[in-house]
Amino acid sequence: MKKTILFFLLCTLGINYSYSQDFPNLKHVKLNKKSNYRGTETLVLKVTDYLFATPIDKKNTSRTEAGQFLIKWMNGTPDYTFLLEDKEVDFFNTDSDLILIYMAGFTKYTLENPTIKDQKALILGTMQLILPYLNKQNSKKSWSTKLWQLNEANQKGELEEYLYH
């Protein structure tokens, strides 16, 4: 019996420890001048990975902190320009959590594919990255009709046609 309790205690501690490792420490990162942004891409990718690894939850303060950091980085980095077009943002119906995951996906896709400069290709790659994540979420109450249609087109392999034709 003691071995069983010890085993579950160790498993629980291990899960909590590994979960906390996924969230990078952002408190030491100062983004108060342009030179502070250089060399932070690896950290930014860890932040986007964290956002994709955690479910949407307004009560998760670490997720909120990660989102705030990402938005600050996107707005201030001198090395990248992120154009959020109304057409793409409209899919998310002003839901801040959905827009955040779109921004995280856009950032992740841009940083992982530095040779892609075409805006349509970036958006297509971003949508292919975020839609499977969104599909796994428990609550889809805030999904707009357009987002449901976008998701359906992605599942049918018709995403590019839906977006651009």
Question: What does this entry show, briefly?
Answer:
With 165 residues, the chain is mainly alpha-helical.
Largest sheet: none
Structural Rg: 18 Å
Percent helix, as a range, is: 55-70%
The number of strands is: 0
Strand content: under 5%
Which overall shape is indicated by the principal axes computed on the Cα atoms?
Answer: globular
Distance between the termini: 64 Å
**Helix- and strand-based class?**
mainly alpha
SS field, number of helical segments: 8
Number of domains: 1
Give the helices and strands as they follow along the chain: HHHHHHHH
Spans with pLDDT under 50 lasting ≥5 residues? 1-21
Structural write-up:
The chain is an all-alpha fold. It has one domain (2-164). It is 64% helix and 0% strand. The chain has 8 helices and no strands. It has helices at residues 2-22, 41-53, 61-76, 86-89, 96-112, 119-135, 145-155, 159-164. The radius of gyration is 18 Å and the shape is globular. The chain starts with a helix and ends with a helix. 20% of the residues are buried.
Annotation keywords:
0% strand; 165 residues; mainly alpha; 8 helices
Topology:
Elements: H1 2-22, H2 41-53, H3 61-76, H4 86-89, H5 96-112, H6 119-135, H7 145-155, H8 159-164
Helix pairs in contact: 2-3, 2-5, 3-5, 5-6
